[in-house]
TrEMBL record:
Belongs to the glycosyl hydrolase 5 (cellulase A) family. One of its GO terms (biological process) is cellulose catabolic process. One of its GO terms (cellular component) is cell surface. The keyword Signal applies. It comes from the Bacteria. Residues 23-282 form the Glycoside hydrolase family domain. This is Endoglucanase. Residues 335-417 form the Carbohydrate binding X2 domain. Pfam families: CBM46, CBM_X2, Cellulase. It comes from Micromonospora sediminimaris. InterPro entries: Carbo-bd_X2 (IPR005102), CBM46 (IPR040946), GH (IPR017853), Glyco_hydro_5 (IPR001547), Glyco_hydro_5_endoGlcnase_B (IPR016282), Glycosyl_hydrolase_5 (IPR050386), Ig-like_fold (IPR013783), Ig_E-set (IPR014756). One of its GO terms (molecular function) is beta-glucosidase activity. Keywords: Carbohydrate metabolism, Cellulose degradation, Glycosidase, Hydrolase, Polysaccharide degradation, Signal. Residues 421-523 form the Endoglucanase B carbohydrate binding domain.
């Protein structure tokens, strides 16, 4: 428990040693010691090195690991340890490349699994106890009849892993070994199944691991899941409570080996609105901390800009780090939309104080004046008409000012003052291979899109909801003034009329009508 607590917080070197076929294949640069030193300097105490071995070992029966690959892994492990980081290594995408065949090919898969772990155990036998082994990443199996049967299959592999490593001697006799639930799921049945493995092994140096990517509709922006709401909050609390009650309360430590939001990716902007994302990150840190869970951020390049060793969004990093020791206040929104023309009125938003107290409001280095510029009543912050008018400036479309609410503790909450005109769209023709709707955003931002047939039924993929998945079905391009409807969307749209409703963050909604005829698409504003 003490060692796992000392690993908080952790960071994943994602899409790197796990990339197929090699370290730079998925777009990340070669790992340097300077980068690992930077991670440590930023407050991270541990690093998870996801490693895929499938393309780096020889044939049966020895499955000899490529010496050059093993040397590279050892080099990064040694650099990390030298930077005073705890290090976790695993078998990563091997889980779905070949380990998943275990139920129907037990002899060969077990031989390969044990051969790899035998070589790793031997290679790292004398390494510091700060090196940790994780048996399998996100275990999954084909050929089983149920999750319960898959739980039993995973039980066999975890037992073999622990016994093999322990028998290899040296520091491996007491090394921390990390065992996942099936799919690294936080469901109670999956945790209960893993607990039986812990009971059978009766080993004091075992750690449980699950992954956490949040309430699915919110994590990918589908079914109207655009906001951090009670569903998202209760999903965090429920999952972390189960982890605490099943394991931590029994003195079995838990590592959330990966966490983030599934669709958060700097290359796909706008899927998850920044303020809503900040609320999620703040809550995950808080709820993990009070339940003594160690978290390891999944970073495949979306958080740390590795070539320049800087955070792509410094504010996200600061809030995540603050959540390890305290709570930060948030608010119902971090955006105040002001019409570009016409009357300006006072604007209010609700503060989520999270145990803090409001202190002051700032615009740059200028402290705004209570009573003149704003008022606070309970948890309601109201900007006066005069303040909104001044902050909106010449009311050019887009962000005209950013103000900062400061509280008794934690990271300040930044609020953008945005001028906009209602977006407009024009008629277009195209095909199902990719249909673009000319859209003048005029300072506004797209939140989500609905698609319905004339009878009111949902059109397109995920036909259980009218709200389609952001990016996979539709994606805005603000520089090109278009919204693309993807081939994946049209692959599940029937011929005939479809009504689209675009929801924008200002609250504006506009409708657009399509007609699909084979591969041809025509569309125009409703």
């Amino acid at each position: 428990m003490q060692m796992v607590a000392a690993m908080q917080p952790g960071w994943n070197l994602g899409n790197t040693l796990d990339a197929i076929p090699d370290e730079t294949a998925w777009g990340n640069p070669l790992t340097t010691r300077e980068m690992l030193r930077h991670i440590r300097s930023q407050g991270y105490k541990s690093i998870r090195l996801p490693i895929t071995w499938s393309n780096h070992h020889g044939p049966a029966p020895d499955y000899t690991i490529d010496p050059a690959w093993l040397d590279r892994v050892r080099e990064i492990v040694d650099w990390s340890l030298a930077e005073d980081l705890y290090v976790m290594i695993n078998l990563h995408h091997d889980s779905w490349q070949w380990i998943n065949a275990y139920p129907t090919d037990r002899t060969n898969v077990m031989a390969r699994y044990q051969a790899l772990w035998s070589q790793l155990a031997d290679t790292f036998r004398s390494h510091s106890s700060k090196l940790v082994f994780e048996s399998i990443n996100e275990p999954q199996f084909t050929g089983t009849s149920s999750d319960a049967e898959s739980d039993q299959v995973l039980h066999e592999l975890n037992l073999a892993f622990v016994r093999l490593v322990r028998q290899s001697g040296g520091n491996n006799a007491t090394r921390l070994l990390v065992l996942p639930t099936l799919h690294t799921s936080g469901e109670q049945a999956r945790m209960d199944a893993l607990l039986t493995t812990f009971d059978e092994l009766d080993d004091p140096n075992l750690v449980a691991t699950i992954h956490f990517y949040g309430w699915w509709p919110f994590s990918v922006n589908i079914a109207g899941g655009t906001r951090y709401d009670s569903n998202v909050e209760q999903d965090i609390i429920g999952t972390f409570d189960r982890a605490y009650n099943t394991f931590v309360s029994r003195d079995i430590p838990v590592i959330i080996g990966e966490w983030a939001l599934l669709s958060y990716d700097y290359t796909r902007p706008g899927i998850i609105q920044r303020g809503e994302l900040l609320k999620f990150f703040e809550a995950v840190g808080h709820h993990a901390r009070i339940r003594k869970l160690t978290t390891m951020l999944w970073d495949a390049g979306s958080f740390l800009h590795r070539p320049e060793l800087r955070w792509r969004d410094q504010g996200i990093y600061e809030l995540m780090m603050a959540s390890l020791t305290t709570r930060s206040a948030t608010a119902s929104t971090d955006q105040i939309y002001v019409p570009r023309t016409g009357d300006i009125t006072s604007r209010s938003l609700t503060l989520n104080l999270n145990g803090t107290s409001f202190q002051s409001l700032w615009h740059g280095s200028t402290r705004l004046t209570s009573g003149t510029d704003y008022s606070v009543s309970g948890s309601t912050l109201t900007l006066t008409r005069a303040a909104v008018t001044r902050l909106a400036g010449n009311r050019a479309t887009g962000v005209n000012a950013t103000i900062e609410a400061r509280f008794s503790q934690g990271v300040p909450w930044r609020i953008s003052i945005i001028s906009y005109d209602p977006p407009t769209q024009t008629a277009a023709t195209g095909t199902t291979s990719g249909f673009t709707i000319p859209t003048q955003f005029r300072g506004d931002q797209l939140a989500t899109m609905e698609a319905e047939y004339a009878d009111g039924n949902a059109a397109g993929p995920a036909n259980w909801t009218t709200y389609k998945e952001f990016w996979s079905s539709f994606r805005p391009d603000y520089s090109a003034n278009t919204i693309l409807l993807t081939p994946e969307f049209f692959a599940e749209v029937n011929d005939g009329a479809v009504t689209l409703t675009f929801h924008f963050w200002s609250g504006t909604q506009i409708t657009y009508r399509l007609t699909k005829s084979g591969n041809s698409i025509t569309g125009s504003p409703a």
